[in-house]
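Structure ticket #2291
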Amino acid sequence: MPADSNIELVREGFAALNAGDLDACVERASPDLIINLAELPEPLHGRDTWREGAAMFRGAFPDLHAEIEDIFGAGDRVAVRLRMRGTHTGDYLGMPATGRSISYVSHEFYRIEDGLIAEEWICSDLASLLRQIG
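Resolution: structure written out below.
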């Protein structure tokens, strides 16, 4: 797929995430999606694993909104710089709801294969997020 199509696929995924439509997000991912999180030593795998993580996060921050601040693509790769915002109204990693607003940056990279997201690398500023709710 051309880089513009890959960029649009990722944009659509974030629009679905912002709408709380996890089914639409998962439809854009390969069944054997590889999930690389900066804080984990090994990748995670699969749509179900992605959905569980996203549902947990949306449960803690139900008004979560990902604002794309920068996006570009080359070949089968798309890079995104996001500003994530929301309100901590549910349990997150054992931390009870604080009602605090959060805002942090995430740098994310995607590999597209056969029109689906095949692999993602997520480098979020979780230290900033935890300071805001902790």
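Closing remark: DSSP finds four helices and six strands in the chain.
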